[in-house]
Fold:
Amino acid sequence: MSGVTLRLDGARWREHLRTVAGATPGIVPVIKGNGYGFGLRRLAEESATLGADTVGVGVPSEVGIVREAFPGDVVILNAWDASSELARDLTKDSSVITTVSRLGDLELLAARGDQPRVLVEVLTSMQRHGIRPDDLAQVAALLPGVRFEGWSIHLPLHTDGRYAQAERLGYAALAVARGTLWFSHLPPEETVTLARQLGGAEGDPVPVRQRVGTRLWLGDKTGRSTTATVLDVHEIKRGERAGYRQRVCPADGWIVVVAGGTSHGIGMEAPTSAKTMRHRAIAFATGSLAAAGLALSPYTINGKKRWFLEPPHMQLSQVFLPRKERPPRLGQEIPVELRLTTATVDCITWT
Structure:
């Protein structure tokens, strides 16, 4: 099959999944979006095989797909939206846990009288969703109206001060109501230490759950590769035009037409943070080249990444190769670098 292919060492990948699951207390596999490149159903099946009792999805519309292959509980991680009919309906499902991030929404659910399962989110330095720590005391009076599943604490990836923040918010939440603490982005060893600390000198550790997505599904890069099929190769002379935008070819060479375009996520990768001066210099250089009409593609030919002739099309891309290089043959598979959280592949093959 021609297209963009993800090749996966299945045995190695599943061994990585088992290792992560075994080292992560109260693991809740996260299954959302594009399924980290594997698809929602596939990850639901793998979560069931791992023995997980609960998985997390991003939005209500993902619950139905995941349930086709996962028999346990499903927690919706995004903040509950009272205006969504589907979100309201799912709060009546005994196997669904709803994350509530606003006092007003918690009041609505508590007043219904049917005890929906609720996870209450605490606002962290992410500043995305959650009830401010200063307002948590108001939660206590509302909890009798719901089935309280615990506190959601979604931490940033930035490590500086992260443990101290988890400790502070954990204490604040538990002072209002004892319950399970559901963490994101807190390493397993720190989670275990914090659970013991919050449990007190003589008490049992506080129950914890850890929501894990990228580290679980994509943590082992060595067991997978992505390739794209060469669909056509054309010789081109300097000064000739090519592509939708009729770009002028800068030198004699080859136009390599290769599978993969915007529909696969190529050319639409999520931005990355430039933390160091080196990263900033690279970002500046590539940005300047892009402004001049040049963009480095994620395709590797003869051991080097090659330049796009023009921005990628919907399902294919045109890449320029200098005349001195040997062009790939028709049907050859060439490496393509994909960010799987934004990618859609045509085929997954297992070895």
Remarks:
- The longest strand covers residues 224-236.
- The longest helix spans residues 162-176.
